[in-house]
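## retry 2 of 3
previous attempt timed out at serialization; input unchanged, resubmitting
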Amino acid sequence: MGASPDEIVLSASTTVNLHALVSTFYEPKGRRTKIVADELNFPSDIYALESEIRLKGLDPREHLVLVRSRDGRIIDEEDVLAAFDDSVALALLPGVLYRSGQLLDMERLTSAAHKRGIVIGFDCAHSAGALPHDLSKWGADFAFWCSYKYLNGGPGSPAFLYVNRKHFHRTPGLAGWFGYDKARQFDMALEFHHARSAGGWQIGTPSVLSASTVLPSLELFGRAGMERLRKKSLALTDFLMAMVDGVLSREPYGYSVGTPREAARRGGHVSLEHHEAWRICQALKKRRIIPDFRPPRVIRIAPVPLYNSFGDVLAVARALKEIVDRREYEAFSTQRDAVS
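## retry succeeded, writing output
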């Protein structure tokens, strides 16, 4: 992630970490009262930002600025920069958009925010483990991400948070015993002395069993190397998009790619669009291929370079073709399940 060890800590869940960070860094004063986010961000982030604004006694309808998408797929960074005015106190943006796979230029956005006196953080849930980061060099103020996508921790495994060391002196907005100075954590003193590290933003005791699943995964990342993984990831997604362009975009298949094509503008997954996306996802699952449906018409395919092969990608492309050829998707209801 491009940070010092004391700037990152495993703690709580993704949304709890977002609350812990925003409660610290969102300090509305004078004209600077607004938070900038984007309308394509993961909804949980928006729920949390709205609640943090309400906790400050303000109205999210007035103080949460959502940058609009021009096409429903990506966010134009020029529109983000245009929203960075002197009424903004904090910006929160995704590293990679969860639906389309668009990769934002975090370095550029951080620099622009700081020039305008804005604190900026990133939700890296869809970029951590998929591509190299340089959070400290970029100067990001804070970030957070889960461990159960590319980092392989398993559903519900603990999340991570990052705090730039220039902020270690700040008192965390949400205090808990696990954020106490580690050398004196068991003194049980009533006065809160937070750890002068990212550990100061921990709140409660972590789940040790869940946390234990993350360690062997991170050791594998250390052996493989993020630069090599990113190179393979781009090759895998290029391969998939080439098969869509060459065959699956034609009639009667009708698939299209909703992910930016440029390597510098995409993360580790490909968003295929199809009017029967939901039922095609069910047909893939029956074939023991696990995709991800995102409404209204996205089939999210994530060939993970740590363990997926080009043969796997080819098998998925063949399955997408055969599901339409054999009309397998028609065996499934158009009614969505609770979990997609």
